[in-house]
Amino acid sequence: MLTAIVLIDAEPSRIPEVAQEVANIAGVSEVFSVTGKVDLVAIVRVHEHDELAGVVSDAVSKIEGVRHTETLIAFRAYSNKDLEQAFALGLDD
Fold first, then answer.
1. What domains can be seen in the chain, in order of their start residue?
2. Coiled-coil region(s) at which residues (predicted)?
3. What is the C-alpha separation between 34 and 2, in angstroms, rounded?
4. pLDDT digit string (tens) for 39-56?
5. Which end of the chain has fewer CB atoms at under 10 Å, N or C?
6. pTM for the model
7. What CA–CA distance (Å, rounded) separates 66 from 87?
């Protein structure tokens, strides 16, 4: 499974509509409106890089109101449980 974080800069007047359209794209698991340098963050989960290209280049980038995207590909996922296990290695309870 390939996970990517897509940062989306949108026209202010279309942020809610862009968010909903992005959320409806196959492969997009979540869309967040955020503060900061971008307006929306989409989490994309697909099986192959070609699918990611389809989601970002062929779908998200063509939505009316999307001005710019930046895609970050995740290498490894960490959760609180993973971090606790990593720091507990070699320690006796």
1. 2-87 (3.30.70.920)
2. none
3. 23
4. 999 999 999 999 999 999
5. C
6. 0.84
7. 41
